[in-house]
Amino acid sequence: NAGVMQNPRHLVRRRGQEARLRCSPMKGHSHVYWYRQLPEEGLKFMVYLQKENIIDESGMPKERFSAEFPKEGPSILRIQQVVRGDSAAYFCASSNFKDRNYGYTFGSGTRLTVV
Amino acid sequence: DAKTTQPPSMDCAEGRAANLPCNHSTISGNEYVYWYRQIHSQGPQYIIHGLKNNETNEMASLIITEDRKSSTLILPHATLRDTAVYYCIGTASKLTFGTGTRLQVTL
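Structure tokens for the assembled complex are given below, as produced in the milestone run.
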């Protein structure tokens, strides 16, 4: 049973390009959470999705960032027109139930570098 | 989510028990206490969680005070591989990470 799979592991983008980060949750998990970790900082919640629905996007920047979790396929975090400040590690976690008290499983993250 | 307070750093000798405290005086009745750790820049790793009762698993023990205002994570026999940042989180829904405790296990 594979864990949460994130790809790519490392992504380099030039300023102004688009970055697409993918997250495949654990088998049977229908809830996905995205977090961002800036260098030398803690993890910040970005968005919580269930299949085809955004449940909580209170941590998402208002512009350039979007997320989806389609009925089929992985969850995608999309960053348009990247800037140097978007350079960070992006982690995805998945769980089985909303508001249930199970430990979330995290992926290994995608390290985005904007040059 | 409950506001949690943890010491910024702690040291522990290898083979000894590491006791990591956490204050969560504002925790509400339906919020669980979760502990995660992050080794270097890897993804956070779930350790343990609890509501009222003390909990134990293969990784650690969690001791929650009767008034639920604080808890202690115990790593019974710390090894060098336990060096990490440990996060205590009080929540009934999404995880909100604070600054955690940087545990350094030394020889």
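DSSP finds no helices and eleven strands in chain A. The radius of gyration of chain A is 13 Å. Further analysis is deferred to the final report.
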